[in-house]
Amino acid sequence: MYDIAIIGAGPAGASAALFTSKAGKKTIMFDSGSSATKRALLKNHYGVLEITGPELVETGIRQAEELGTTVQSEKVVSIQKGEDGFHIETEASSYESKYIILATGLLTEIGEKLGVETKPGTEPRIKKIFVTDEKGKTNVENVWACGTVAGVSMHTIITAGDGARVGINLISEMDGKRYVDHDVL
Hints:
Elements: E1 2-7, H1 11-22, E2 27-30, E3 41-42, E4 51-52, H2 53-66, E5 70-72, E6 76-81, E7 86-90, E8 94-102, H3 109-114, E9 118-120, E10 128-130, E11 143-145, H4 156-175
Parallel strand pairs: 1-2, 1-8, 2-5, 8-11
Antiparallel strand pairs: 3-4, 6-7, 7-8, 9-10
Helix pairs in contact: 1-2, 1-4
């Protein structure tokens, strides 16, 4: 059983995975290959002069893997809550996890089937988003959400930061104390 399953491998999901894996949490991240970022050319990302969306997504996935994240290139088709966590079905296999982070970009269907509450989106072209508290928790116990699907701006720099924020908040809850991670030279 995984500690954390992250549904979505775009900037929000991969950023959450960087922190959860580095903190020693057994993390799996699912990449359906449908990230909107894969169609972007980024010239407004802090610290990067220019990068294509596919390059950014691939770099984020590679970073997460190097820190210990298991990455599955599979589409999640259902998530069911059980006594000890969640049962995750993909088109190819099934997995178990104690916590879920939804980082599904424009898509809410998988969370809605699980009972996650939604509300109208506020960004252009975003029809619905998940309702979360200030930490990223949804109304379903042990289900968190980050990035565009949680109501932040679609800009990759913002969704990446939101994924990191939610990952840190989840680690902090799991450990019972505030998690801080700073690398030094």
